[in-house]
Design a protein that fits this description.
Radius of gyration: 22 Å
Distance between the termini: 26 Å
Oligomer: single chain
Structural class: alpha+beta
Largest sheet: 5 strands, antiparallel
CATH topology of the largest domain: Alpha-Beta Plaits
Number of helices: 10
CATH superfamily of the largest domain: Reverse transcriptase/Diguanylate cyclase domain
Number of domains: 2
Order of helices and strands: HEEHHHEEEHHEHHEEHEEEHE
Shape: elongated
CATH class of the largest domain: Alpha Beta
Strand order of the largest sheet: 2-1-5-4-3
CATH architecture of the largest domain: 2-Layer Sandwich
Strand content: 25-35%
Number of strands: 12
Length: 299
């Protein structure tokens, strides 16, 4: 797992409040330690389940079941409004627990792709609006580079595949990996390594087209997604990125520290899913590494 994403999850797990994320189909994708403590249900029991499986069986103060009628999270997924409510959830041991819930939508490119729900004992629910926004950012962004994180990338890629299948919009994907990055960390230390990652992230983000997408996949690896390109355009843009990154430099102790990237790229094909597309781009990346690094391979 990406170290920065892991750190973000550690921060969420340190919260006293319960926090969980759902995708647009209300599938539960994250369940923190606070949620385990308040509900009695572990992450292993909840991840991959759906809100409407009704394990928590939310009811209002009148005893009305909310999971299928009046669920505030479901309403937020439909209209994007931030909501607060007081509900009674079902604890694993059978009791009812009164909680205050705060729900926010998660957006990618102005499209609702999921939601976060924060809940706590009613008397302890005091997380600020700023805290909620920070939680949302932790859910979708890498804290070192400020680029979209692995969770964001996965959702964005799924959306591009959907648009390809329904609207015929082609796109290409690039996997970018820093060359000899372990040597940078071993020679200069991880603090300098972090600065190098930020330098490369900023360079790639500046060099791609305005409507293209770049995120941090994990470690020293990045993903770029380019909508509406041909394979020739994908190759040319990837080669441009290689050259521009090689010309970026970080001043350290009067030295200019430079790095290069290897890139593997591929166009979406009719039978692809996210897994097969990433696998093909990753294979192309391996070829670039094997053939000398600081180069592009398109498969």
């Amino acid at each position: 797992m990406d170290t920065e994403l892991s750190n973000c999850e550690d921060l969420l797990n340190d919260l006293y409040e319960g926090v969980y994320f759902v995708d647009k189909d209300r599938g539960i994708t994250f369940w923190n330690k606070g949620a385990e403590r308040i509900t009695g249900f572990s992450a292993n029991e909840m991840l991959g389940r759906y809100c409407y499986d009704n394990l928590l069986s939310h009811v209002d103060q009148h005893g009305k079941q909310l999971c299928f009628d009046g669920c505030p999270l479901h309403e937020t997924l439909k209209d994007g409004l931030v909501r607060s409510a007081q509900v009674f959830l079902h604890h694993k041991n059978g009791q009812r627990v009164r909680v205050d819930v705060k729900i926010r939508p998660l957006y990618i490119k102005d499209e609702i792709v999921g939601a976060t729900e924060l809940f706590s004992s009613a008397e302890l629910s005091d997380l600020s609006e700023a805290g909620l926004k920070a939680m949302e950012r932790l859910a979708l962004y890498d804290q070192l580079t400020q680029l979209p994180n692995r969770r964001y990338i996965d959702t964005f890629l799924d959306n591009q595949i959907r648009d390809f299948r329904t609207l015929g919009i082609p796109f290409g994907i690039m996997m970018l990996d820093l060359d000899f990055f372990k040597r940078v960390n071993d020679t200069y230390g991880h603090d300098v390594g972090d600065l190098v990652l930020k330098m490369v992230a900023g360079t790639v983000q500046s060099a791609i087209r305005k409507n293209d997408f770049v995120g941090r996949w994990g470690g020293e690896e990045f993903v770029a997604i380019l909508r509406g390109v041909t394979q020739t355009e994908l190759q040319l843009i990837a080669e441009k990125l290689c050259k521009i990154v090689a010309q970026a430099g970080l001043t350290h102790n009067d030295d200019c520290l430079r790095v290069t990237v290897s890139i593997g790229a591929s166009m979406i094909a009719q039978m692809d899913n996210a897994g097969t597309l990433i696998q093909r781009a990753d294979k192309a990346l391996y070829t670039s590494k094997h053939e000398g690094r600081n180069r592009v391979t398109v498969l």
